[in-house]
Amino acid sequence: MSSTFSGDEFAPFVGFLGAACALVFSCMGAAYGTARSALGIAHMGVMRPELVMKSVVPVVMAGVLAIYGLIVAVIVTTGINPMAKPYYLFDGYAHLTAGLACGLSSLAAGMAIGIVGDAGVRANAQQPKLYVSMILILIFAEALALYGLIIGIMLSGKVGQSRAG
Q1: Rg, Å, the chain Cα set
Q2: Nearest-10 crossing angle of helices 57-78, 89-126
Q3: How far is it, in rounded angstroms, from Cα 98 to Cα 118?
Q4: d(C-alpha 21, C-alpha 11), whole Å
């Protein structure tokens, strides 16, 4: 290791693991939500093809989850530069928890969006009055991931506060 390195040598691995967790888990949530909702759209499209474009909302909302993970992953990776400033285990664990908070909340939201999207678009095909209710439930499911994004950004802001300097 170079003599210009400062901080804990293991800390960047933990920090980059946080970036990976944010992106991987949020993409898993987005993929599940997209696939499950698209399955419902395909089944609904057989009965009511005119409602297909109106029923794409769950797929779009699921896709936003991956963007949340990307945002946190970029914030985390830009905060890791142990050659420029010391990077300690506290910083690595702050980045790891930021990635896990965003990634796992996006995974949970993706599962909720997929299930609600599947059942919601099928129900909307039979009773159009259910559309607004489906959208509201999807918004509340998306809010779960938004909470994780906010906490992830807050945790990333704690980096560099472990030692007075």
Answers
A1: 20
A2: 170
A3: 30
A4: 15
Beta-bridge partners for 63: none
At residue 159, the 3 state secondary structure works out as: coil
User: pTM higher than 0.85 for the full model?
Assistant: yes
pLDDT tens digits for 64-115?
999 999 999 999 999 988 788 888 899 999 999 999 999 999 999 999 999 9
Nearest to 58 by CA among 85, 94, 30, 26: 30
Nearest Cα neighbor of 135 from 79, 69, 61 is 61
Rounded CA separation 139/131 (Å): 12
Q: How far is CA 60 from CA 67, 108, 117, 131, in A?
A: 11, 16, 11, 16
For residue 86, the SS3 value is coil
Residue partners of 152: CB distance under 8 A and separation at least 6: 22, 72, 75, 98, 99, 101, 102
- 136: pLDDT strictly greater than 90: yes
The tokens describing 136, both together, are 């509201």
Closest CA to 20 of 67, 63, 74, 61: 74
